[in-house]
TrEMBL record:
InterPro entries named in the record: 4-PPantetheinyl_Trfase_dom, ACPS, Ppantetheine-prot_Trfase_dom
Enzymatic reactions: apo-[ACP] + CoA = holo-[ACP] + adenosine 3',5'-bisphosphate + H(+)
Keyword Lipid metabolism attached: yes
Superkingdom per UniProt: Bacteria
The protein's Enzyme Commission number: 2.7.8.7
Full protein name: Holo-[acyl-carrier-protein] synthase
Domain 4'-phosphopantetheinyl transferase: 3-91
GO MF annotation terms: holo-[acyl-carrier-protein] synthase activity
Gene transcribed to yield this protein: acpS
Length: 115
């Protein structure tokens, strides 16, 4: 294991931030992610934060360089490209695992980076 990250996000507070800050949704999420429900967006934000932590939280990571996609089974998967993929390669990562959850007003994510 090369790294692990965890993050939690208050869904209502995250929604207020999206409402208050024009362009935040587009800055944080890819077009494929942006149309999801608020709880799903909060979980995806938590996943991107958890991924950054698993990578050692370096500066310069672009939000769109990490995307949470759903497999046909509904299982979430992280796609990395650009700055995020470069950092993962620098660390020798060969796989990344993500788990998302949202309940009782809180979204959470755990990311495990393996080499």
């Amino acid at each position: 294991m090369l790294g692990v990250g965890i993050d939690v996000c208050d869904i209502a507070r995250f929604g207020l931030s999206l409402d208050r800050t024009p362009g935040l949704r587009e800055r944080l999420f890819t077009p494929a992610e942006a149309g999801r429900s608020l709880a799903s967006l909060a979980a995806r934000f938590a996943a991107k934060e958890a991924l950054a932590k698993s990578l050692g939280a370096p500066g310069g990571l672009a939000w769109h360089d990490a995307e949470v996609v759903s497999e046909e089974t509904g299982r979430p998967r992280l796609e990395m490209r650009g700055s995020v993929l470069a950092r993962a390669a620098e660390l020798g990562a060969t796989s990344v695992h993500v788990s998302l959850s949202h309940d009782a007003g809180i979204a959470s994510a755990v990311v495990v980076l393996e080499g």
